[in-house]
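Dear Dr. H.,

I hope your travels went smoothly. While you were away I took the liberty of generating a structure for the chain from your last submission, since the lab meeting agenda had it listed for discussion. I wanted you to have the full record in hand beforehand rather than looking at slides cold. The sequence, exactly as received, is reproduced here:
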Amino acid sequence: MTRPCKSKQVSRVRPRKHFLS
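The corresponding predicted structure, in token form, is as follows:
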């Protein structure tokens, strides 16, 4: 589930990538 806002956040936050999965 990738949101427009989260998309930018995940771009800089690598460790939290699994959080979106």
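Two observations you may find useful: Residues 4-12 form the longest helix (9 residues). Helices lie at 4-12, 17-20.

With kind regards,
E. W.
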